[in-house]
Design a protein that fits this description.
ATP Synthase, domain 1; alpha+beta; Single alpha-helices involved in coiled-coils or other helix-helix interfaces; 2 domains; 2 helices; 10 strands; 5-stranded antiparallel beta sheet; 5-stranded mixed beta sheet; single chain; binds adenosine-5'-triphosphate
Length: 136
């Protein structure tokens, strides 16, 4: 059925490696979709929902930050973290958001690494919360 090969890889493991018909991913320039025959393409990935379908089966993952390459009907998504959207722990994300907000409140407007890390953590947490609340 599937005409594309999708791989979603984190530093810990290969989360997805399968044939699919379509992939929709959260690119840094906006969401993009990939079907068979897509031209070679490179994009950053930002925290958001990655969807893919094979036949009538759709799967959804939360992905964080990384990049994606489309080449020769293969879609590679390399990200810091990924989990199935149904496996998002809402309480954990709320706590992560709270921690990030506290850090940002203490260090308002700084451009140091801790500030940027807290901003990135806040973004991950907010996206997890938004997706988890949408599906529950
Ligand atoms: P935390 O501070 O709660 O660890 P984080 O944003 O720093 O959040 P990540 O670095 O994005 O976490 O992810 C680390 C690992 O934990 C990954 O395997 C990721 O899939 C998983 N993970 C993080 N937050 C959640 C969550 N709310 N629900 C389910 N899995 C999560």
């Amino acid at each position: 059925m599937g005409k594309l090969h999708l791989e979603v890889v984190t530093p810990e493991k290969v989360m997805v490696s399968q044939e699919v018909d379509i992939v929709v991913a959260p690119g840094t320039m906006g969401e993009f979709g990939v079907l068979e025959g897509h031209v070679p393409f490179l994009s950053g990935i930002e925290p958001g929902e990655l969807r893919f379908a094979s036949g009538n089966q759709t799967e959804r993952f939360l992905v964080t930050t990384g990049f994606s390459e489309v080449f020769d009907n293969k879609v590679s998504v390399l990200v810091d973290a990924a989990e199935k959207t149904t496996e998002i722990d809402l309480e954990r994300a709320r706590k992560a958001m709270e921690r990030a907000r506290e850090r940002l409140a203490k260090d308002r407007g700084g451009e140091d690494i801790d500030f940027l890390r807290a901003e990135a953590a806040l973004k991950r947490a907010m996206v997890r919360i938004r997706i988890s609340e949408k599906i529950n």
